[in-house]
Design brief:
three-stranded antiparallel beta sheet, alpha+beta, 5 helices, six-stranded antiparallel beta sheet
C-alpha cells in the first residue's frame, strides 16, 4: 500500500499540477540508455519467464529538483500506456507476478534487490534506474536506503496477482507464457529496445 504521505502528495500533484512535468518537459527528461538484460532459469519455486529477460535501464531519466521524482515516473509510464501506478518500496520477500508484466522506476534512494530467486542475481538499483520485469520474474528487496522509493506500473494486457509460495509454481508456469508482449516500452514508447530484446528470446 502507498504510504500516507506519498498518497497525499500524489493527490495534490494531480489536482494542481504542482511538481509534475508537462508532456514537453517529460520528453526532455528521458535519456537514451543501453538496455541491460538478465535472464533467469526456473528454480522450482520462482519460475521466471521462459523466454524474456529482466531489462534494466541505468540512469534513464533526469530527476531535477523542481519536479517530484515519483511524478516523473508516473507521467512517463502513463504516457506509454503502463497504468495502475503506485509508490512504495519493494517487498522483503521473494515474489513474482504470473499474469502480468511490471515496471519499477526508482524515484529516490537505492536498494539491493535479488531478481530471479535464490539462483538469480542481486543488483543495486538507484534513483533514475528502471527495471522491466516480464511475468514470472522473482524480486525481493534485501536492503534499502531509508529514502528508497519506487514507482511501479503495469501494461493493460494482464491481470495483477502476487505469487510467493512453492504451491503457486505449477499454476504459474501455465499462465506466465500466455501474458502478451506489451505494445509499448514503458520508457521509450513504441521505439524502445524492449521489443527487440524480448523478441530475441522468443
Amino acid at each position: 500500500m502507498m504510504p500516507i504521505l506519498e498518497r497525499g502528495k500524489t493527490l495534490v500533484e494531480k489536482i494542481t499540477g504542482w511538481q509534475r512535468p508537462s508532456s514537453d518537459e517529460l520528453g526532455r527528461l528521458v535519456r537514451q540508455r543501453k538496455a541491460n538484460a538478465f535472464r533467469f532459469e526456473d528454480d522450482g519455486i520462482i519460475p521466471n519467464h521462459p523466454h524474456w529477460p529482466l531489462v534494466v535501464y541505468r540512469g534513464v531519466v533526469k530527476l531535477p529538483a523542481e519536479f517530484d521524482p515519483a511524478a516523473i515516473f508516473e507521467e512517463l509510464f502513463e504516457r506509454n500506456n503502463w497504468k495502475g501506478s503506485w509508490r512504495n518500496g519493494i517487498y522483503d520477500y521473494a515474489h513474482y507476478h504470473s499474469r502480468i508484466h511490471e515496471v519499477l522506476g526508482v524515484a529516490r534512494g537505492s536498494a539491493k534487490v535479488q531478481f530471479g530467486g535464490k539462483r538469480g542475481r542481486t543488483l543495486t538499483i538507484k534513483a533514475a534506474d528502471v527495471a522491466i520485469l516480464p511475468a514470472g520474474t522473482g524480486h525481493q528487496c534485501l536492503a534499502a536506503s531509508e529514502d528508497f522509493l519506487v514507482v511501479g506500473a503495469y501494461p493493460p494486457n494482464g491481470t495483477y496477482d502476487e505469487c510467493s509460495r512453492s504451491e503457486d509454481h505449477a499454476h504459474a508456469v501455465k499462465t506466465i507464457f500466455k501474458v502478451a508482449k506489451p505494445r509499448q516500452d514503458p520508457v521509450y514508447g513504441g521505439s524502445g529496445p524492449l521489443f527487440d530484446i524480448w523478441k530475441a528470446f522468443r
